Amino acid sequence: MVKFKNYEMFRMASRQSSISLVQPFMKHWSKHGLKMWLTIYEEFPQSFYYMDKKSYGQLTRNIFKIICKDQEHLKKYEPRKKALLKTAKALATFKEQDNLTKLFESYLKASDDFGEYIIGSFAMDEQLQKKLQKKFPKEFDLITMPYKLTEYQKMEQELISKKPEEIVKEFCWLNIYSGFEKIYDVEYFKELKKELSNKKIKSLNEQLRKNKEEFCKFTETIKDDDWKEKCILMHEYANIKNDRIDALKKSVFYLTKFYEKLAKKIKDPDITGRTLINTSHEEIKDIIKGKINCEEIKKINKEIIFYYDHELVIITDEKKIKKIKAQLKEKKRKSNSIKGSVANKGKAIGKAKIITDVRELSKVIKGDIIIARVTDPRYTTYIRKCKGIVTDEGGILSHTAIISRELGIPCIIGTKNATTTFKDNDLVEIDADKGTVRRIKKQ
């Protein structure tokens, strides 16, 4: 059996995943202390990330120290984001005379540099959140409120005045995450345009401006420079949290274009750009050099498990996969109530809609309670319809926490098991003053 048996594994997150998406960060996190990262597909491409608990804690401590020591950390964010997108776009638009190996290596370096901000957000949650909550309990919500628009919000603002046919050219990539998803089409933007309100857009802009203004006033009252720097760091990460994922998604969108062009060089009808999304970087380098193992590439587009322990290992053996899944399967606990962390106070009663994948969002109707593993900007349209949100995962800088405060709806995060405790159409009550969710009536 694989090495992960030697570690105390915990389920860190549930995300749409691919090797293309996570391998750069597996390598970066391993370099900074993480001993084991295991990815298991639940319902492709939805997966669970399992990590070694002890070294994950050490990883967040190491990254937090790096961030605090580097006075240029925040200033480096935009240049590193631009480098990630520039190198990914260069791959998507490569020409025959280009040195593909060099272009790919440039992209890998940019991905590695950007990895500091991917884990940086988790480091803020693990190493700084509780300290700031204790020191500044009244001002904590202000510290963790963003002052910039997300890419999804920018799209909505432009959609008010522009045609969907124009918007699709610039923002079709917003639905991409692992690379396996379909891009948004014109019809999506046409339907979204019907729901948008100019009044709400203006209100959001005003709120963001107010967040920045009030935060600046607050920091002027902090006498201790160390605490002031920590508050500024957390406040900036309230913006970086979502923006880093937007940058990552757009870079993966460019990679899918690159893989489509690369697949044509292979000249095997069973290998497409989609097939290459789950190939390792080492395999991509071999393909660029003309060393192509078609059978191995086809294997990893069936059910796989992959893990990182100083190097990437891909498991394709069905018996091994079944055994690993059985060992890590969590027992469902029967309960009518659960607890989590309060992201936005308030109370609400409504029918539960369990969302374990973004593709299930269409079942949400006005007045429902969304119970999800995690949310991201793609959930925004549906969150506006609901009375409250509950998630298994997420910290105070998560998309769920931020949007619930923007919309003023009750929200409880980090429950760990809300999606397995409740079922669709259960009547549930959120008490986000106490941090509890309870079933009033079963479906």
Write a structural description.
The protein has 443 residues and is an alpha+beta fold. The protein folds into three domains: 3-127 and 231-328, no CATH class; 143-223, no CATH class; 337-441, Phosphohistidine domain (Glucose Oxidase, domain 1, 3-Layer(bba) Sandwich), CATH 3.50.30. It is built from 18 helices and 13 strands. The protein has helices at residues 19-31, 53-69, 73-92, 100-127, 129-135, 140-143, 151-161, 164-171, 186-195, 198-220, 225-266, 273-276, 281-288, 294-299, 318-328, 380-383, 399-407, 418-421, and strands spanning 9-16, 37-43, 46-52, 305-308, 312-315, 337-339, 341-344, 347-355, 369-372, 388-391, 411-413, 427-431, 436-441. The protein has an eight-stranded mixed beta sheet. A five-stranded antiparallel beta sheet has the order 1-3-2-4-5, sandwiched between helices. A hairpin with a 4-residue loop joins strand 12 and strand 13 (436-441). Helix 3 runs antiparallel to helix 4 (100-127) and helix 8 (164-171) crosses helix 9. The radius of gyration is 22 Å and the shape is globular. The protein starts with 8 loop residues before the first strand and ends with a strand.
